[in-house]
Amino acid sequence: MAKQLAAEPILEVNELVKKFPVYGPFGRLVGPKAHVNAVREATFRMYEGETYGLVGESGSGKSTTGRAILGLTPATSGEVLYRGKDLVKLSQQELRSIRKDIQFVFQDPLSSLNPRKRIGDILEEPLIIHKIGNREQRQEKVFRILEVVGLQPEHYFRYPHEFSGGQRQRIGLARALIVNPKMMICDEPVSALDVSIQSQILNMLRGLQAELGLTMLFITHDISVVRYISDRIGIMYLGAIVEEAPTDDLFVEPLHPYTKALLSAVPDYTRSRLKERIVLKGEIPSPLSPPSGCAFHTRCPLATDKCRVDRPAAREVRPGHRVACHYV
Protein backbone atom coordinates (compact mmCIF):
# COMPACT_ATOMS: atom_id res chain seq x y z
CA MET A 1 0.00 0.00 0.00
CA ALA A 2 1.37 3.43 -0.97
CA LYS A 3 2.19 5.94 1.73
CA GLN A 4 0.02 8.99 2.23
CA LEU A 5 2.24 11.90 1.19
CA ALA A 6 2.44 15.17 3.10
CA ALA A 7 0.70 18.19 1.61
CA GLU A 8 3.93 20.15 1.05
CA PRO A 9 7.24 18.76 -0.24
CA ILE A 10 10.25 18.79 2.06
CA LEU A 11 12.59 19.06 -0.95
CA GLU A 12 11.98 20.51 -4.42
CA VAL A 13 14.50 20.13 -7.22
CA ASN A 14 13.66 22.46 -10.11
CA GLU A 15 15.50 22.30 -13.47
CA LEU A 16 18.78 21.33 -11.82
CA VAL A 17 21.75 21.55 -14.20
CA LYS A 18 25.33 20.45 -13.63
CA LYS A 19 28.04 20.86 -16.27
CA PHE A 20 31.68 19.86 -15.83
CA PRO A 21 34.28 21.78 -17.86
CA VAL A 22 36.61 19.85 -20.17
CA TYR A 23 39.97 21.55 -20.69
CA GLY A 24 42.39 21.25 -23.59
CA PRO A 25 46.16 20.70 -23.54
CA PHE A 26 46.78 24.15 -21.96
CA GLY A 27 44.51 23.40 -19.01
CA ARG A 28 42.71 26.26 -17.31
CA LEU A 29 44.86 28.93 -18.95
CA VAL A 30 42.57 29.24 -21.99
CA GLY A 31 39.27 28.11 -20.50
CA PRO A 32 37.23 24.95 -21.19
CA LYS A 33 36.89 23.65 -24.72
CA ALA A 34 33.64 21.78 -23.95
CA HIS A 35 31.33 20.76 -21.10
CA VAL A 36 30.05 17.42 -19.86
CA ASN A 37 26.29 17.77 -19.38
CA ALA A 38 25.99 15.51 -16.31
CA VAL A 39 22.54 16.69 -15.16
CA ARG A 40 20.08 18.29 -17.57
CA GLU A 41 17.17 20.16 -15.96
CA ALA A 42 16.28 17.43 -13.46
CA THR A 43 13.00 18.17 -11.67
CA PHE A 44 11.31 16.22 -8.87
CA ARG A 45 9.72 16.57 -5.41
CA MET A 46 10.23 14.67 -2.18
CA TYR A 47 7.76 14.49 0.70
CA GLU A 48 8.45 14.00 4.39
CA GLY A 49 8.80 10.37 5.49
CA GLU A 50 9.01 8.85 1.98
CA THR A 51 11.77 7.09 0.08
CA TYR A 52 12.30 8.40 -3.43
CA GLY A 53 14.28 6.02 -5.65
CA LEU A 54 16.44 7.50 -8.42
CA VAL A 55 17.24 4.84 -11.04
CA GLY A 56 19.22 4.75 -14.27
CA GLU A 57 22.19 3.27 -16.07
CA SER A 58 25.75 4.10 -15.07
CA GLY A 59 26.58 7.60 -16.26
CA SER A 60 22.98 8.82 -16.22
CA GLY A 61 23.71 11.54 -13.61
CA LYS A 62 22.16 9.94 -10.51
CA SER A 63 25.10 10.41 -8.13
CA THR A 64 25.87 13.89 -9.47
CA THR A 65 22.26 14.88 -8.77
CA GLY A 66 22.56 13.70 -5.16
CA ARG A 67 25.84 15.52 -4.65
CA ALA A 68 24.53 18.72 -6.27
CA ILE A 69 21.51 18.75 -3.95
CA LEU A 70 23.78 18.95 -0.91
CA GLY A 71 26.37 21.23 -2.51
CA LEU A 72 29.15 18.61 -2.50
CA THR A 73 29.28 19.31 -6.23
CA PRO A 74 28.12 22.91 -6.85
CA ALA A 75 25.18 23.10 -9.26
CA THR A 76 25.56 25.08 -12.49
CA SER A 77 21.98 26.36 -12.35
CA GLY A 78 18.52 25.50 -11.09
CA GLU A 79 16.89 25.40 -7.65
CA VAL A 80 17.12 23.01 -4.71
CA LEU A 81 14.51 24.13 -2.19
CA TYR A 82 14.74 22.53 1.26
CA ARG A 83 11.78 23.71 3.36
CA GLY A 84 11.57 26.74 1.05
CA LYS A 85 15.29 27.66 1.29
CA ASP A 86 17.32 27.51 -1.95
CA LEU A 87 20.46 25.48 -1.18
CA VAL A 88 22.10 26.45 -4.49
CA LYS A 89 22.38 30.08 -3.36
CA LEU A 90 23.78 29.37 0.13
CA SER A 91 27.40 29.91 1.10
CA GLN A 92 29.50 27.01 2.38
CA GLN A 93 29.08 28.26 5.93
CA GLU A 94 25.29 28.40 5.56
CA LEU A 95 25.28 24.93 3.96
CA ARG A 96 27.12 23.48 6.96
CA SER A 97 24.14 24.08 9.23
CA ILE A 98 21.79 22.54 6.62
CA ARG A 99 23.96 19.41 6.42
CA LYS A 100 22.96 18.57 9.97
CA ASP A 101 19.44 18.02 8.58
CA ILE A 102 20.52 16.36 5.29
CA GLN A 103 23.20 13.66 5.50
CA PHE A 104 24.97 11.80 2.69
CA VAL A 105 25.78 8.05 2.69
CA PHE A 106 28.52 7.23 0.18
CA GLN A 107 28.73 4.23 -2.13
CA ASP A 108 32.22 3.21 -0.97
CA PRO A 109 32.34 3.59 2.82
CA LEU A 110 36.05 2.77 3.07
CA SER A 111 37.04 5.74 0.89
CA SER A 112 34.92 8.06 3.07
CA LEU A 113 36.38 6.85 6.40
CA ASN A 114 39.69 8.25 7.65
CA PRO A 115 42.02 5.21 7.87
CA ARG A 116 44.10 6.86 10.62
CA LYS A 117 41.22 7.38 13.01
CA ARG A 118 39.41 4.94 15.25
CA ILE A 119 35.69 4.46 14.58
CA GLY A 120 34.77 6.23 17.81
CA ASP A 121 36.65 9.37 16.72
CA ILE A 122 35.13 9.23 13.23
CA LEU A 123 31.61 9.09 14.66
CA GLU A 124 32.28 11.84 17.20
CA GLU A 125 33.56 14.23 14.53
CA PRO A 126 30.10 15.35 13.24
CA LEU A 127 29.03 16.02 16.82
CA ILE A 128 32.11 18.19 17.38
CA ILE A 129 31.57 20.09 14.10
CA HIS A 130 27.94 20.85 15.00
CA LYS A 131 28.82 21.55 18.67
CA ILE A 132 26.57 18.82 20.07
CA GLY A 133 27.18 17.79 23.70
CA ASN A 134 30.34 17.52 25.78
CA ARG A 135 32.90 14.70 25.49
CA GLU A 136 31.04 12.29 27.77
CA GLN A 137 27.71 12.93 26.05
CA ARG A 138 29.27 12.48 22.61
CA GLN A 139 30.89 9.21 23.63
CA GLU A 140 27.62 7.92 25.05
CA LYS A 141 25.83 8.87 21.83
CA VAL A 142 28.43 7.01 19.73
CA PHE A 143 27.96 3.81 21.76
CA ARG A 144 24.19 4.14 21.36
CA ILE A 145 24.32 4.65 17.59
CA LEU A 146 26.67 1.67 17.19
CA GLU A 147 24.01 -0.47 18.83
CA VAL A 148 21.29 1.01 16.60
CA VAL A 149 23.13 -0.05 13.40
CA GLY A 150 23.93 -3.53 14.71
CA LEU A 151 27.56 -3.08 15.83
CA GLN A 152 29.21 -3.81 19.19
CA PRO A 153 30.65 -1.38 21.78
CA GLU A 154 34.17 -2.77 21.26
CA HIS A 155 34.02 -1.60 17.64
CA TYR A 156 34.46 1.95 19.00
CA PHE A 157 38.22 1.31 19.36
CA ARG A 158 38.89 -0.30 15.95
CA TYR A 159 40.09 1.16 12.65
CA PRO A 160 38.12 1.08 9.34
CA HIS A 161 40.33 -1.60 7.72
CA GLU A 162 39.39 -4.06 10.49
CA PHE A 163 35.78 -4.28 9.30
CA SER A 164 34.00 -6.13 6.50
CA GLY A 165 32.21 -4.25 3.70
CA GLY A 166 28.81 -4.64 5.35
CA GLN A 167 30.15 -3.44 8.70
CA ARG A 168 31.78 -0.41 7.09
CA GLN A 169 28.49 0.51 5.44
CA ARG A 170 26.84 0.30 8.87
CA ILE A 171 29.50 2.71 10.13
CA GLY A 172 28.70 5.07 7.26
CA LEU A 173 25.02 4.93 8.20
CA ALA A 174 25.88 5.50 11.87
CA ARG A 175 27.88 8.60 10.97
CA ALA A 176 24.93 9.97 9.01
CA LEU A 177 22.37 9.14 11.71
CA ILE A 178 24.31 10.40 14.71
CA VAL A 179 23.29 14.04 14.17
CA ASN A 180 19.57 13.11 13.96
CA PRO A 181 19.02 14.21 10.33
CA LYS A 182 15.61 14.81 8.78
CA MET A 183 16.73 13.47 5.41
CA MET A 184 19.40 11.13 4.00
CA ILE A 185 20.82 10.84 0.48
CA CYS A 186 22.01 7.25 -0.02
CA ASP A 187 24.27 6.87 -3.05
CA GLU A 188 24.18 3.17 -4.02
CA PRO A 189 24.80 2.11 -0.40
CA VAL A 190 24.43 -1.64 -1.06
CA SER A 191 25.77 -2.05 -4.62
CA ALA A 192 29.16 -3.46 -3.52
CA LEU A 193 27.76 -5.85 -0.89
CA ASP A 194 26.79 -9.54 -1.02
CA VAL A 195 23.08 -10.20 -1.51
CA SER A 196 22.60 -11.44 2.07
CA ILE A 197 24.31 -8.33 3.46
CA GLN A 198 22.27 -6.13 1.11
CA SER A 199 19.04 -7.46 2.59
CA GLN A 200 20.29 -6.77 6.14
CA ILE A 201 21.21 -3.16 5.30
CA LEU A 202 17.93 -2.55 3.42
CA ASN A 203 15.82 -3.97 6.24
CA MET A 204 17.74 -1.84 8.73
CA LEU A 205 17.14 1.27 6.61
CA ARG A 206 13.41 0.58 6.40
CA GLY A 207 13.22 0.02 10.13
CA LEU A 208 15.15 3.21 10.94
CA GLN A 209 13.03 5.21 8.52
CA ALA A 210 9.81 4.05 10.18
CA GLU A 211 11.23 4.65 13.67
CA LEU A 212 12.83 8.04 13.04
CA GLY A 213 10.52 9.42 10.31
CA LEU A 214 13.41 9.85 7.87
CA THR A 215 13.04 11.05 4.29
CA MET A 216 15.40 9.25 1.91
CA LEU A 217 16.69 9.79 -1.60
CA PHE A 218 17.87 6.32 -2.61
CA ILE A 219 20.17 6.29 -5.65
CA THR A 220 20.73 2.93 -7.36
CA HIS A 221 20.86 1.09 -10.69
CA ASP A 222 19.36 -2.09 -9.18
CA ILE A 223 15.67 -2.38 -10.10
CA SER A 224 14.97 -5.08 -7.49
CA VAL A 225 16.45 -3.01 -4.67
CA VAL A 226 14.61 0.17 -5.61
CA ARG A 227 11.31 -1.72 -5.90
CA TYR A 228 11.73 -3.07 -2.36
CA ILE A 229 12.66 0.15 -0.59
CA SER A 230 11.04 3.02 -2.55
CA ASP A 231 7.63 4.68 -2.30
CA ARG A 232 8.11 6.60 -5.54
CA ILE A 233 10.63 6.17 -8.34
CA GLY A 234 12.24 8.56 -10.83
CA ILE A 235 13.82 7.04 -13.97
CA MET A 236 16.85 8.99 -15.17
CA TYR A 237 18.36 8.95 -18.66
CA LEU A 238 21.31 11.09 -19.76
CA GLY A 239 20.87 13.55 -16.88
CA ALA A 240 17.08 14.04 -17.10
CA ILE A 241 14.15 12.33 -15.40
CA VAL A 242 12.02 10.72 -18.11
CA GLU A 243 9.38 9.04 -15.91
CA GLU A 244 8.23 9.36 -12.31
CA ALA A 245 5.52 7.37 -10.54
CA PRO A 246 4.56 5.57 -7.32
CA THR A 247 6.46 2.28 -7.19
CA ASP A 248 3.45 -0.01 -7.67
CA ASP A 249 2.16 2.05 -10.62
CA LEU A 250 5.54 2.05 -12.33
CA PHE A 251 5.92 -1.72 -12.13
CA VAL A 252 2.30 -2.48 -13.05
CA GLU A 253 2.31 -0.28 -16.15
CA PRO A 254 5.52 1.50 -17.19
CA LEU A 255 4.85 4.09 -19.87
CA HIS A 256 8.17 5.47 -21.17
CA PRO A 257 10.00 3.24 -23.70
CA TYR A 258 13.22 3.50 -21.68
CA THR A 259 11.47 2.40 -18.47
CA LYS A 260 9.98 -0.59 -20.30
CA ALA A 261 13.43 -1.58 -21.54
CA LEU A 262 14.93 -1.29 -18.04
CA LEU A 263 12.19 -3.39 -16.44
CA SER A 264 12.35 -6.01 -19.18
CA ALA A 265 15.92 -6.74 -18.08
CA VAL A 266 14.59 -8.07 -14.75
CA PRO A 267 13.88 -11.81 -15.36
CA ASP A 268 10.94 -12.14 -12.94
CA TYR A 269 9.34 -9.00 -14.28
CA THR A 270 9.72 -10.08 -17.91
CA ARG A 271 7.97 -13.39 -17.27
CA SER A 272 5.05 -11.84 -15.43
CA ARG A 273 4.46 -8.58 -17.34
CA LEU A 274 6.22 -7.81 -20.58
CA LYS A 275 6.51 -11.36 -21.92
CA GLU A 276 9.67 -10.55 -23.87
CA ARG A 277 13.05 -8.86 -23.44
CA ILE A 278 13.35 -5.39 -24.98
CA VAL A 279 16.90 -4.89 -26.26
CA LEU A 280 17.94 -1.29 -26.90
CA LYS A 281 20.15 -0.66 -29.91
CA GLY A 282 23.31 1.42 -29.72
CA GLU A 283 25.01 3.05 -26.76
CA ILE A 284 24.10 5.94 -24.48
CA PRO A 285 25.09 9.17 -26.31
CA SER A 286 28.03 11.12 -24.95
CA PRO A 287 27.10 13.77 -22.37
CA LEU A 288 29.69 15.98 -24.09
CA SER A 289 27.27 16.39 -27.00
CA PRO A 290 23.79 15.13 -26.03
CA PRO A 291 21.29 14.68 -28.87
CA SER A 292 18.84 17.42 -29.77
CA GLY A 293 15.17 16.92 -28.98
CA CYS A 294 14.43 13.84 -26.88
CA ALA A 295 17.75 12.46 -25.59
CA PHE A 296 16.42 8.90 -25.93
CA HIS A 297 15.46 9.18 -29.62
CA THR A 298 18.77 7.63 -30.80
CA ARG A 299 17.76 4.30 -29.20
CA CYS A 300 13.97 4.52 -29.03
CA PRO A 301 11.88 2.18 -31.24
CA LEU A 302 9.08 4.79 -31.36
CA ALA A 303 11.21 7.79 -32.41
CA THR A 304 9.98 10.09 -35.18
CA ASP A 305 11.23 13.34 -36.68
CA LYS A 306 9.39 15.25 -33.97
CA CYS A 307 11.44 13.44 -31.30
CA ARG A 308 14.67 14.47 -33.01
CA VAL A 309 13.73 18.16 -32.90
CA ASP A 310 11.42 18.81 -29.92
CA ARG A 311 12.41 17.89 -26.39
CA PRO A 312 9.28 16.52 -24.65
CA ALA A 313 8.23 18.18 -21.40
CA ALA A 314 7.29 15.96 -18.47
CA ARG A 315 3.51 15.87 -18.08
CA GLU A 316 1.20 14.17 -15.62
CA VAL A 317 -0.74 11.45 -17.42
CA ARG A 318 -2.22 10.00 -14.22
CA PRO A 319 -2.26 11.22 -10.62
CA GLY A 320 1.38 11.20 -9.53
CA HIS A 321 2.60 9.59 -12.80
CA ARG A 322 4.68 11.94 -14.96
CA VAL A 323 6.27 11.04 -18.31
CA ALA A 324 8.49 12.94 -20.74
CA CYS A 325 7.47 11.40 -24.06
CA HIS A 326 5.53 12.76 -27.06
CA TYR A 327 3.68 9.49 -27.66
CA VAL A 328 2.45 8.45 -24.21
Automatic annotation (TrEMBL):
<dbReference type="Pfam" id="PF00005">
    <property type="entry name" value="ABC_tran"/>
</dbReference>
<dbReference type="GO" id="GO:0055085">
    <property type="term" value="P:transmembrane transport"/>
</dbReference>
<dbReference type="Pfam" id="PF08352">
    <property type="entry name" value="oligo_HPY"/>
</dbReference>
<comment type="similarity">
    <text>Belongs to the ABC transporter superfamily.</text>
</comment>
<dbReference type="GO" id="GO:0015833">
    <property type="term" value="P:peptide transport"/>
</dbReference>
<dbReference type="InterPro" id="IPR003439">
    <property type="entry name" value="ABC_transporter-like_ATP-bd"/>
</dbReference>
<keyword id="KW-0067">ATP-binding</keyword>
<dbReference type="InterPro" id="IPR050319">
    <property type="entry name" value="ABC_transp_ATP-bind"/>
</dbReference>
<feature type="domain" description="ABC transporter">
    <location>
        <begin position="11"/>
        <end position="263"/>
    </location>
</feature>
<protein>
    <submittedName>
        <fullName>Oligopeptide transport system ATP-binding protein</fullName>
    </submittedName>
</protein>
<dbReference type="GO" id="GO:0005524">
    <property type="term" value="F:ATP binding"/>
</dbReference>
<dbReference type="InterPro" id="IPR017871">
    <property type="entry name" value="ABC_transporter-like_CS"/>
</dbReference>
<dbReference type="InterPro" id="IPR013563">
    <property type="entry name" value="Oligopep_ABC_C"/>
</dbReference>
<keyword id="KW-0547">Nucleotide-binding</keyword>
<dbReference type="GO" id="GO:0016887">
    <property type="term" value="F:ATP hydrolysis activity"/>
</dbReference>
<dbReference type="InterPro" id="IPR027417">
    <property type="entry name" value="P-loop_NTPase"/>
</dbReference>
<dbReference type="InterPro" id="IPR003593">
    <property type="entry name" value="AAA+_ATPase"/>
</dbReference>
<keyword id="KW-0813">Transport</keyword>
